[in-house]
Amino acid sequence: MATKMTEEQARAYWRRNLSLMVKLLVVWFIVSYGCGILLVDVLNQFRIGGYKLGFWFAQQGSIYTFVVLIFIYRWRMAALDREFDVEED
């Protein structure tokens, strides 16, 4: 059963939640924009599964990264919810 948080605890909870989201979005931005657009020429020198690496990041890598980041967010938020005693049954 979740307990009622104080105003200070609620601020700390949301600050940590927003911090986690920003970090994960920065990773996604670097992978999708950086690897898929900015560094595409450098990465295209390498191949993965027969495709140029820059092309792979632009077409598949950013999607895979996003899915992995969703699971990381879920895992980290579950831990944060337990820490602040606000987990759902």
Textual characterization of the structure:
- With 89 residues, the protein is mainly α.
- A two-stranded antiparallel sheet has the order 1-2.
- Strand 1 and strand 2 form a beta hairpin.
Describe this protein with a few key phrases:
two-stranded antiparallel ribbon; 89 residues; mainly alpha; 75% helix; 4% strand; single chain
Please write out the topology.
Blueprint: H1 7-38, H2 40-43, E1 47-48, E2 51-52, H3 53-83
Outline:
With 89 residues, the protein is mainly α. 75% of the residues lie in helices and 4% in strands.
Number of contiguous helices: 3
Shape: elongated
User: How is the largest sheet built, in terms of strand order?
Assistant: 1-2
Rounded to the nearest angstrom, the radius of gyration is 18 Å
Classify the helix fraction into a percent range.
over 70%
Task: Tell me the number of strands.
Answer: 2
